[in-house]
Amino acid sequence: MKRIGAFVVLLLLIAVCASAIGVVYARQQSRLLFGELVRLNNERDDLNVEFGRLELEQATWAEPNRIEQVARGQLGMINPPPAATVLIKQ
Amino acid sequence: MSLRPQPKKKNAPVQLRAKPRPVNTRARLYVVLMVLVLGSTALIVRAVDLQVVRKDFYQEQGDARFLREMPIPVSRGTIYDRNGEPLAVSTPVASIWANPQELLEQSDKLPQLANALGIEVDALQTKLQQHSEKEFVYLKRQLNPDDADAIVKLGIAGVNAQREYKRYYPSGEVLAHVIGVTNVDDRGQEGLELAFDDWLAGTPGAEHVIRDNKGHTVEDVELLREPKPGRDLTLSIDRRIQYMAYRELKSAIIDHHAMSGSMVVLDVQTGEILAMVNQPSFNPNAHGNMDISFRRNRAITDVVEPGSTAKAFTMAAALESGKWTLASHVDTNPGWYKIATWTIHDVHNHGLLDLTGVITKSSNIGAAKIAETLSRDSLYDMFHRFGFGESTGSGFPGESPGLLPVVTAWGPVEKATISYGYGLNVTPLQLAQAYAALAHDGRIRAPTFVKGARNPDNAIIDPEIAHAVVKMLETVVQPGGTAYPMAVVSNYLVGGKTGTARMAHAGSYQNKYVSTFVGFVPASAPRFVGVVVIHDAQGLRYYGGDVSAPVFAKVMDGALRIMDVPPDNVQRWYAGGPATPVAPPSAAVGDDTAEEVP
Questions:
Q1: pTM of the model
Q2: Scanning every residue of chain B, which has its alpha carbon at the shortest distance from the alpha carbon of A51?
């Protein structure tokens, strides 16, 4: 009887120690992961900022006014006159 | 410890019996026991008090020292045009805020901070003093995030940056009226930004975090509210058509020294609004203290008298009554006509006209004489069915329903004037909707700003009648018509109607004119309806055919090309020559009468 009791106590003692170390480990992991989360959130925000900026830049370059000026002015493009167009009938 | 020695002490007095002063161990034991019991009771009571009775108070106090509720800002949804081009984009900016109490204690650092913020030291000082009771005041809002970082890095205690979002509109004034603007808190104030605010805005989240004494976040404790980012919105607007409409309208207004104008382009089949522009416009990216009249979306909020463009609906009513056929004639001699005390004029004497001729020549007398034979109820009903006097249901904030006088107020003179477009008020969008119904086999459909949101359509007139009126409207853009050749689009059949109305102001009419053109292309299978309304064109040419029709033709020419609509008028194409006749209209045709009303 006595030996069984001592064995159980020993077992519980080991379990307590193990769980204590487990808690410490989990806390540490949680801190590390939180740091990682903050870093990734910041990275996401930065990428969103960059995306918005690029989207705006693209919209500015693709402004119809600018395209028309480049097409007509620099590239000398014109609307094709009817005489230069062949109509394909189905 | 207290009880175990007892047996030993029981034995002890036997050995020490000879000692002169016997010790009462039992009494001592009780005293010690008492002290220990009292002490532990006190501890237990205190523990219960702290842990149970006043738990909430201490928990709160503890949390208040390191737990913070932090908002999680969300960005507003992007607005795209029908091809996915961004029209309104939220980009992150930073606002600098400070704790005045903390900042006022370190007045030596204020000049440095003021310099970084680009404001006067005195102004900063005053601002802080005004808010010295509070713990939060914005110092500068909506800065470039990099600039804000630089200010925070000065390391002045109590100065912080907060993320916010600012709206940018790459299309600027071209789309300003339709999209509208947001305020500094990123909420919609006007236009579609206001109409779709709930959809676009999203809900900011909130979380509990543990912060150390320097304000750094150490740990996320719990998420209080999930952040819901704003949803994107895809409009029916086509940026390219919008741009062409804006460019052509603006140059027409400059050429004619006009006061203001609007243009609407609708997709006939779906009711989608492809373009909606107004002049004057404003820059939505810097709209601080702009004249409010520049900001009205006139195509929806302002009404005009439709003038002769209303004659198409009078013709529809005439055909529906059965009293008139396409072969019927009406005598417009001698160029004026008297109803009660009111005299109606045509610019020229057109003599005997058939129904098509009344539209082609835009004869007021013809329209009035036809209206005379119709009951006022049937004429009112026809206008009402085409959506006049009722909001179109586009959902745009501030939309005007226009005005169609109640039928009981119609006398013979009112009936005559309404038949040629006076005495009722319509918005340019209503006019576009009504002509789209004509062009769409007599089925009316509420216009929409959202791509793919097709409203249900209702048949309002017999398709045969709609087709007949469409044929009449084609003659307006053919030789002899009031919009020939100004509204001609190369290689396409065009149907439309000019309108010129005197502007009403404070109950009377002035010598100012509203020049209108409304039409559809290609007339054989209509795809687009366009309305051009220009106010107060100066000079000798103020007729709708002269001022507004060329804008319509140029925009439609581009829209048909952009949307790849095959030409339906190819005879000219095969002829090879320039399709648009260059001869100016003869004086006898520019006959779109501006008429006075009692």
A1: 0.79
A2: B91
